[in-house]
Automatic annotation (TrEMBL), chains A, B:
Its cofactor is Zn(2+). InterPro entries: FUR, Fur_C, WH-like_DNA-bd_sf, WH_DNA-bd_sf. It comes from Desulfurobacterium indicum. This is Transcriptional repressor. GO terms for molecular function: DNA-binding transcription factor activity; transcription cis-regulatory region binding; zinc ion binding. The lineage of its organism: Bacteria, Pseudomonadati, Aquificota, Aquificia, Desulfurobacteriales. GO terms for biological process: negative regulation of DNA-templated transcription; regulation of secondary metabolite biosynthetic process. Keywords: DNA-binding, Metal-binding, Repressor, Transcription, Transcription regulation, Zinc. Zn(2+) binds at C98, C101, C136, C139. Belongs to the Fur family.
Length: 141, 141
DNA sequence: GTTTTTGCAAACGCTTTGCACGTAG
DNA sequence: CTACGTGCAAAGCGTTTGCAAAAAC
């Protein structure tokens, strides 16, 4: 799913199947989200779009991100300094958060979770989120 | 470190060594935090204390939790529905968050992280946070 | 006595929401 | 034509902060 246009077609198909309407705003927000890999905040997306898109509102970005989450097309992957960060990559992967610059970086490192031992809790586990914290390469001087 | 009074003595020692003053509020907040294992929010602690402690303020609870974090005596372990949750247990462990009731539960399940592969990123990794999401035993009916 | 901490209330900042208008289907 | 989405501004809400009084050391 690397081709952006393919992803947008997929988005339209899924959105329609969920009864969502395909608006120019939604397409633009989804395109922006999947085009970049810095896990933007709602405001990041808003800032990137307001130049090309007269009158787009921050509220619409928030509402669209929530819709995308509900449709399984996006995820809130972290909260850095009180600001939610989103990802259009929905395949399982981990993240590293730099406590200096706040960058959120994808980590494709394998993790072996002893899920056998988790069974004793009798929980229905749906998701496992792994976040590493530290200082990124650029911030180490 | 199971004995509460022992933990409080340890807290006083560390706090003093960091130049912090030992106030009745701080002792009460720390005691409340380490006495319970439900990962309370600042408001949970405030609610539990305001009965026994005339005039304690929510701001003091927030400030104390921040001080405890800085002293390495507590941690913000999760944010559930926009509310930060704290833990006085600072040894490494994971958490399960029930998306129905919002409970945060300690998980002492081993995880083998392939830290070797992390090295290629040239990050200085200080912490690894693992959170499982799903539905807890009580909420499954 | 000096410095830190507290309580109160106000301020903050991200996010959500009510409403009238616009637009997709 | 009807239901859903949008823009705007206002409201929400957890958390932080300024300040004078109080307490720790």
């Amino acid at each position: 799913m690397k081709n952006i246009e393919t992803m947008i077609e997929n988005f339209k198909k899924i959105a329609r199947s969920k009864g969502m309407k395909i608006t120019p705003q939604r397409v633009a927000i989804y395109r922006e989200l999947v085009s970049r890999h810095d896990h933007p905040s709602a405001e990041d997306i808003y800032d990137a779009l307001k130049g090309k898109f007269a009158g787009i509102s921050l509220a619409t970005v928030y509402r669209t991100l929530t819709s995308l989450e509900n449709a399984g097309l996006a995820m809130k992957v972290a909260t850095v300094n009180g600001v939610a960060r989103f990802d259009g990559k929905i395949t399982p992967h981990s993240h590293f958060i730099c406590k200096v610059c706040g960058r959120v970086i994808d980590i494709d490192c394998e993790v072996n979770v002893e899920t056998e031992k988790l069974k004793k809790y009798n929980f229905s586990v749906e998701k496992c989120e792994i976040i590493y914290y530290g200082v990124c390469d650029k911030c180490q001087n």
